[in-house]
Amino acid sequence: MPSAPDPATAQRMRKAFEYAASVFGLRPAGDAETWGWDGKTLSGPVTSGRWLRVAAALTEKAARAAWDGAETAQEAMPDSVPRPRLENVRQWSEATYTYRAEVHERIEGGVISSTVMPPSGLDLPDAWWGSLRNALGAVSEVPTDRVAIRQERLHWAMPEFLGIQVDTEIPEWATLHADIQWSNLVGPELCILDWERWGLGPAGYDEANLYVSSLSEPSVADRVQREFAPALASPSGRFSQLVVAGEYLQGIGRGNNLELEAPLRELVARLLG
């Protein structure tokens, strides 16, 4: 997971977190902090067995911020999709920043990994894998007009980061969580976290994201491939693997998840070869 941002951003976000907790009649419970990229979100446990998440955006850009994902997922997703229940939402603005605070139930268990990649030696029960298959299948059928993966971005991004001209037209659309990787999954009983991005995209994208993020641990990647073989082997699933590979290669260019570079390039060569 991302580390704490620069001191000024960290201080501002901690102040917003404490303010949000007080608005809900809660208090921070311990020193645990979970930071989002560039310090744009700060989450942590609060009293009454709850979890508080605070997101920030420049006020001039807040109207375009796609940060109502948890709220819309709460309304749209069936109960068969295990996720933390959203209990309350508040939004407020200051001179420069607008903030959105969400109170969730605090879940049992813990995230499987502190990064997008699985921990070494990961061994999850068969029931967990079955629950994830069922959950992603249920998500894929939820009707929505939210868009998670935009076609116009793929026309630019796939050739740019894959380094080769490819067919960038999405072959099949489905509803996605759009960030299925190991820091958003809980075990040993499945719970799926972080619904900020959910929406339409290429079918098989969620399964492809889990597979690509697992390439650092070949045994886990093999298990993902076995569990989600129909989705990954389909034309849209192979396309989605290229989409996800391009996204990770873009991040690697910024210094993120460097362990994935070699297996990613092997995967791209195999998919295109």
Structural class: alpha+beta
Considering DSSP H and I runs of 4 or more, what fraction of the residues is helical?
A: 25-40%
- Total of helices: 9
The beta-strand count equals: 10
C-alpha-based Rg, rounded: 19 Å
| Low-pLDDT segments, ≥5 res | none
Q: How far apart, in Å, are the first and last alpha carbons?
A: 34 Å
Instruction: Identify the overall geometry.
Output: globular
Question: Into which percentage range does the β-strand content fall?
Answer: 15-25%
Mean pLDDT: 94
Task: Encode the helix/strand succession as letters.
Answer: HEEEHEEEHHEEEEHHHHH
Strand order of the largest sheet: 1-2-3-5-4
Description:
The structure is a single chain. This protein is of the alpha+beta class and 273 residues long. It contains 9 helices and 10 strands. It has helices at residues 7-23, 69-76, 126-140, 151-162, 205-213, 218-227, 229-233, 235-253, 261-272; strands at 34-35, 41-46, 50-58, 86-93, 97-105, 110-111, 173-176, 185-187, 191-192, 199-202. The strands form 3 sheets. Strands 1-2-3-5-4 form a 5-stranded antiparallel sheet, with helices on both faces. The chain has a 3-stranded antiparallel sheet with strand order 6-8-9, with no helix packed on it. Strands 7-10 form a two-stranded antiparallel ribbon. Helix 4 (151-162) crosses helix 8, helix 5 packs antiparallel against helix 6 and helix 5 (205-213) crosses helix 8. The longest helix is centred in the C-terminal third of the chain and has 19 residues, at 235-253. The chain starts with 6 loop residues before the first helix and ends with a helix. The model has no long low-confidence stretch (mean pLDDT 94).
